Amino acid sequence: MLSESSSFLKGVMLGSIFCALITMLGHIRIGHGSRMHHHEHHHLQAPNKEDILKISEDERMELSKSFRVYCILLVRPKDVSLWAAVKETWTNHCDKVDFFSSENVKVFESINMETNDMWLMMRKAYKYAFDKYRDQYNWFFLARPTTFAIIENLKYFLLKKDPSQPFYLGHTVKSGDLEYVSMEGGIVLSIESMKRLNSLLSIPEKCPEQGGMIWKISEDKQLAVCLKYAGVFAENAEDSEGKDIFNTKSVGLFIKEAMTNHPNQVVEGCCSDMAVTFNGLTPNQMHVMMYGVYRLRAFGHVFNDALVFLPPNGSDND
Question: What is the pLDDT of residue 128?
Fold first, then answer.
């Protein structure tokens, strides 16, 4: 009996040491790029109204016409109902949108990535977008079909950001030493970040197709690892009051949480007035959001926004 107990304890100890070793190797692999650059995490805020009013009317008109966002939607055949919902709703406000599918789908037009691996799909979609549209768009927004995005608010947030700088924006999450932008809230890359990412896609030592790890990590973490090698780091996007504008939950869930945690300040405790994304929506909720954001109007009440972003010609502005 004593011998069996001793063998059991040895097995537990060896197992614990092995797990610890694996964990250390994982952190070394993910954090490898941190030795190349020192970076303090930033919280980037949207401009306030006073900043916009300082811009001349002619400049505002030029900005509203020239500011262009290319949208990338990663979809799978099982997402066909969500695919239909985003196609009928908010993606009409992108200056250009392409759907990248894991396989050929007859129901909707898409670009076939011929893989079900989300990281490979993301890599291929970014390469396609850069190769084809690098001279036409300065900002690239990637999202899931469960995400609802308000593109006008995204453009407003990016208004004073220079796309020739390496921006990598959204809702940031920390995992060990790695900070990354969660795909749940959508990911924004500037053209400079796209250039740097594209230069690394063919270098497996820095941006491997399979992550090069003992276990597989999510596609948004893999993207952050690759970008880190290029000196591009995750930035959390916030409004002028410090509230997150890229959200990984639905409006309904935020309101439910606010009613529990801040019963006397439900609206203030919920979400930013300039929110860009919400996630985890059903197809019906997509259409409800579209109604609330673009269609519902209070008669006689006029919004005097300093800047107007119009959707591309031929799209339904709702």
Answer: 97
Structure-token pair, residue 225? 């690892």
35 pLDDT exceeds 70? no
Query: Tens digits of per-residue pLDDT, 195-226?
Result: 999 999 989 888 988 754 556 789 999 999 99
Checking if the pLDDT of 32 tops 60, the result is no
Domains (range + CATH), the chain: 43-295 (3.90.550.50)
The whole-angstrom separation of Cα 162 and Cα 159 is 8
Residues 304, 318: Cα–Cα separation, whole Å: 19
3-state secondary structure of 175: strand
With vertex at residue 184, the alpha carbon angle to CA 165 and CA 229, rounded to the nearest 5 degrees, is 40
Average pLDDT over residues 66-89: 92
d(CA 159, CA 221): 27
CA nearest neighbour of 37 among 234, 272, 185, 257: 234
Cβ–Cβ under 8 Å, residues 35 and 229: no
